[in-house]
Design a protein that fits this description.
The protein is mainly alpha-helical. The chain is built from 14 helices and no strands.
Amino acid sequence: MTLLLDRSYDCCETLARREAANFYPAFRLLPWPRRRAMCALYAFLRLSDDLADSTNPVESRRQALDDWRARTERMLQGDYSHPIHPAFHHTVRTHGIPARYLFEALDGVGMDLDIQRYATFAELYRYCYRVASVVGLACIHIWGFRDERALPHAEEAGVAFQLTNILRDLAEDAARGRVYLPGEDLERFGYTSEQLQRGERGPAFVALMRFQVERARAYYLRSRDLETLLSAPGKAVFRVMHGTYRGLLERIERGHYDVFTQRVRLSRWRKLGLVLLALPIRWGLWG
């Protein structure tokens, strides 16, 4: 490994350790080269997301994303213009990550610049696929998977994780004018986006949230079979990530869907427990 490449991976790992509270402990279950690859993937996604979520005017953010896309295209040709580029390009080549996943992820973060509401779940699913499912699909190329049956399960896991993020962040997103809950669901349960922005938690909201939680839970159940198609280290990482996000969903449910007065999170000890339980799986002792 060249000095330039080694420093690039160090940059990615520093960023991941600092920013990836829900992910980095799970990354450590992977063999060192794959862990560094996950840090490189995370760094690319984190930087992409930050461009779309900055406080700059929309057109400025759009221009920044367009520039980042062009720089990503050049990176894939070996022309590096950011410290993470050597490591990320090495990761993409080493693990055979399809380039289309990178650009679909950029399309996903770009959707937040133009779309504030989703009329149907089908529209929301497209967003979830771009911002989360393609991440899962890229991850399993790093973790190692047995055959193509893993792909739809990775897609389902990404949808489950993103639906959980949406429910956890309802209040924060509503304050920014973003309502990810499908309009058809709001209408079905007699709840409005204005009520959401005011933080109203009446019977209609509870019924709406119960429906959303059950929908997310269905995707968690369907995605569980991904474990059986992964390498032992990949299985361990997936077990931790699946448990972390499913745990957040359960906390939302046990908290009577109160996502307005406090941020839903898992304790550090709970996350550490998930990692410890995954250690025997990591080493192929049981699974």
